[in-house]
Amino acid sequence: MIRSTLVLLLALAACSEGRSANTGGEDPAAGRLVGVWDATLKVGRPYPLQLQPSQVTAICGTIGLIANGTRSASIEDVASATQLGVYDLPLSQIGLEWSGKAAFPAAAASITGPGTDTSPASGSDSVRILLNPGSEERIILSGRYESGGIQGTWIAQSARGTANGSFSMRPHTRSQIQSGRC
């Protein structure tokens, strides 16, 4: 499963070269999410009901997003998303053991600009990324798109309680993969 995810992420990276690709038919703010992102998730509060608490407090990985051109899906969060994609994040290392069915690790993202009902007039755009849409154990990343990246918080809810923390995302660069850093 990790191999197929990596192949899909590499295909996204090859097509976008880590840059945003706005096709002109979409909101320019939403087009800024399209591409490959290096992501870091830090744990603020782990799940309270874990058999073995994780010793890891931060993970790094990649999220790849493309424009959702059809906006038709059976899952409401996916149908309303402006971007769809996949991720490669070792969630189990921080106790977020997603037990998805025979599916790949999916992501659905949306962005809203300043002056909308969901974004303050601070000049930054609000970003919402949902990992594992339609799953019982999904993770919601909520943040702000500022120059050079996205900063925010994440929350995960499951039968084991609620876990949360912070995250940051930066446009993907080849040197980060070669050096092994996020």
Tell me what the structure shows:
With 182 residues, this protein is of the alpha+beta class. The protein has a single domain, classed as Quinohemoprotein amine dehydrogenase alpha subunit, domain 2 (Lipocalin). 16% of the residues lie in helices and 38% in strands. It has helices at residues 2-16, 28-31, 76-79, 174-179; strands at residues 35-45, 58-67, 83-88, 106-112, 125-131, 139-146, 149-158, 161-171. The protein has an eight-stranded antiparallel barrel. A hairpin with a 7-residue loop joins strand 5 and strand 6 (139-146). It is globular. 31% of the residues are buried. Mean pLDDT is 75; it is low at 1-26 and 115-121.
Question: Outline of this structure?
Answer:
The protein has 182 residues and is of the alpha+beta class. Helices cover 16% and strands 38% of the residues. The chain has helices at residues 2-16, 28-31, 76-79, 174-179, and strands spanning 35-45, 58-67, 83-88, 106-112, 125-131, 139-146, 149-158, 161-171.
